[in-house]
Amino acid sequence: MAVFTSVIPIEANEWLKRYSIGSLTDLVGIATGIENTNYFLTTTQGRFVLTIFEKLTAIELPFYLNLMSHLARHAIPCPAPVADNENQFLGTLKGKPAAIVSRLSGVTVMAPDLSHCERVGATLANMHLAGRSFREHLDHPRGARWRSETAPKVMSFLDAARQTLLRDEIAYQARIDFTLLPQGAIHADLFRDNVLFDGARLGGVIDFYFAGVDAWLFDVAVTINDWCVHPDGYFDAIHANGFLAAYAAIRPFTDAERSVWPTMLRAAALRFWLSRLYDFYLPRPGELIHAHDPEHFRRILDLRIALQDQGPTL
């Protein structure tokens, strides 16, 4: 279980006294995730998720919690943070920032079909438009600056070919200016395990803790690189075209976005190759840490470079 901070029921029940959501009936650690400690929290009044934040600070966290609250109020299916009796979303548990959010219905779909991809595309577009009225700002924490700062930390773990790939792609992306593309709040991590389906209905989008303000197109690239690919990293053309059409039906793409689309697919692949390298080679202590295989996104990056003009078009 991906738990860095252990919480026992008596501790959780004591902490719940600051809320008006009943007393604890069940507490179960959530096995997925590598950034935070998460528990399914059931009380006499409902089902929730308790998150203890292992890296994010009390300065950064209001952006994420307020963004989720904003999107939930605008009919985006995402967790709604629960305010405590002092009307605060954020508290402290075991000496770390912690929050409670609503628990959504549904399960992850790891082998999506076309209809799943279309629903995710439409939901992502609606989420981007709903976020236009959100006035808080936080730079995307896994943007270009983070990539440039993180690459040297993992370079020594790589063989010569992978060092060259990483060094060259960092340099290539540094020459590209994405700041004139349509911008706003992005999820930035909308993988299959961060979307819940309740039958045919998209039940929720979860885990906003990599969100920030960046080009909406980056969010599209991150999502399609996971939802619409075969296990070998090649695109599933039918799924990819369905996803993009569903998104564009709600928020049409601009000419500027079309011109940099292949490069943005590379940027999205680079971001996750780099973060997985870091988590794999430089993990922090925990009871059990689920680190993803970095090679999957290295292969995707190689493919996006080699087949730059042969992927799905906007």
Write the layout of secondary structure elements.
Blueprint: H1 9-15, E1 24-29, E2 36-43, E3 46-53, H2 61-73, E4 91-93, E5 96-102, H3 114-130, H4 144-154, H5 160-174, E6 183-186, E7 195-198, E8 201-205, E9 212-215, H6 216-227, H7 237-248, H8 255-281, H9 295-306
Helix pairs in contact: 3-6, 3-7, 4-5, 4-8, 5-8, 6-8, 8-9
In helices, the fraction of residues equals: 40-55%
DSSP summary, beta strand count? 9
Name the shape in a single word: globular
What structural class is derived from the secondary structure elements?
A: alpha+beta
Tell me the series of helices and strands, N- to C-terminal.
HEEEHEEHHHEEEEHHHH
Total DSSP helices: 9
**The CATH homologous superfamily of the largest domain:** Aminoglycoside phosphotransferase (APH), C-terminal lobe
Strand composition percent: 15-25%
CATH topological fold name of the largest domain: Aminoglycoside 3'-phosphotransferase, Chain: A, domain 2
Give the N-terminus to C-terminus distance in angstroms.
39 Å
Question: Main beta sheet, described?
Answer: 5 strands, antiparallel
Can you offer a commentary on this structure?
With 314 residues, this protein is an alpha+beta fold. It has 2 domains: 9-102, 2-Layer Sandwich (Phosphorylase Kinase, domain 1); 114-306, Aminoglycoside phosphotransferase (APH), C-terminal lobe (Aminoglycoside 3'-phosphotransferase, Chain: A, domain 2, Alpha-Beta Complex). The protein is 40% helix and 16% strand. The strands form 3 sheets. It has a 5-stranded antiparallel β-sheet, covered by helices on one side. The chain has a two-stranded antiparallel ribbon with strand order 6-9. A two-stranded antiparallel ribbon has the order 7-8. A hairpin with a 6-residue loop joins β1 (24-29) and β2. α6 packs across α8. The longest helix has 27 residues, at 255-281.
